[in-house]
Amino acid sequence: MARAAVSAVPPRAWLEGPCPRCQAGWRCPAGDAQRPACRACGAPASALAHALVDAGGALRGCLHCGHDQMYAARDFPRRLGLAVVIAAAALAPFTYYISLAAGALVDAGLVFLVRKRVHCYRCGAVHHGFARPQVWAPFRLEVADVHRFGSKASVVAALRPGAEPPAARRQD
């Protein structure tokens, strides 16, 4: 796959997300000119919007669909967290349950050490390795509901006439 001549995209950044047609997963380096064609259904490749990366390597929107409503989440390895909890629970009777507190501290330390990734509300693409993911707000259920259910979302129905639905744009 051809690389785009975009210097603003961090060299180790990558994308993953669901196929728009069949929801099968795909993954590609962020510097590629387009996302790969779907292996499951054969959906054609689509171009990545590299104009949405600023000069510092931070995102201004989704590279896959171009949408500007995204959220940041920790890239925590769930299997590692589960392994820490299981090990602490297994050792609990032999350590007078002190291992549970130690496991909780290790788990909390891991949460603060891992990097953040940025998710798109619209297409579900996940952006890894970009600069300053903290400028995006954390996940908001009401914004996700608006993107998933549209005007049928409960938060939209509760708005007064003429009011705008909730948005999740950059914080800077």
Largest sheet: 5 strands, antiparallel
Number of strands: 5
Fraction of residues in helix = 25-40%
Q: Would you tell me the overall average pLDDT?
A: 85
Counting DSSP H or I runs of 4 or more residues, the number of helices is 4
Question: Rg to the nearest angstrom?
Answer: 20 Å
- Assembly of the depicted chains: single chain
Distance between the termini: 34 Å
SSE order, one letter for each helix or strand: EEEHHEEHH
Spatial ordering of strands, largest sheet? 2-1-5-4-3
Query: SS-based structural class?
Result: alpha+beta
Inertia-based shape: globular
**What is the number of independent domains?**
2
Strand content: 5-15%
Give a verbal description of the structure:
The chain has 172 residues and is of the alpha+beta class. Strand 4 and strand 5 form a beta hairpin. It has a 5-stranded antiparallel sheet, with no helix packed on it. The protein is built from 4 helices and 5 strands. It folds into 2 domains: 105 residues, no CATH class; 35 residues. Helix 1 packs antiparallel against helix 2. It is globular.
Which structural traits does this protein have?
172 residues; alpha+beta; 2 domains; 5-stranded antiparallel beta sheet; 4 helices; 5 strands; disordered N terminus
Give a short synopsis of this structure:
Helix 1 runs antiparallel to helix 2. With 172 residues, the chain is α+β, with helices and mostly antiparallel strands.
